[in-house]
Amino acid sequence: MAETCPNTATKIRCAVVTGGNKGIGFEICKQLASNGIMVVLTCRDITKGLEAVEKLKNSNAKNVVFHRLDLLDSTTMSSLADFIKIHFGTLDILVCIFILPL
């Protein structure tokens, strides 16, 4: 589900953006990545998330990975927390773009 983050000897700042596959979330991912921050783009739909990462990488925002996250599913939240801990140690920035579906 998640793409592997590049390993480096130096600490990289890590941002998680929920709802990063479109709209303002997508643009926030783009801006953060273009400023050297490693971005974990999250959304519920795996296909849409991976497509968004490809678009970002094609627009020169290279340091973006995808991880599935459904804020109504605690297992995906735990999985994301484990992913961040393993690959980054800590989370530096959290941007929550979330609207509860009706």
From TrEMBL:
One of its GO terms (molecular function) is oxidoreductase activity. It comes from the Eukaryota. GO terms for cellular component: membrane. The keyword Cell division does not apply. Keywords: NADP, Oxidoreductase. The keyword Cytoplasm does not apply. SUPFAM superfamilies: NAD(P)-binding Rossmann-fold domains. It holds the Pfam family adh_short. Belongs to the short-chain dehydrogenases/reductases (SDR) family. This is Uncharacterized protein. The lineage of its organism: Eukaryota, Viridiplantae, Streptophyta, Embryophyta, Tracheophyta.
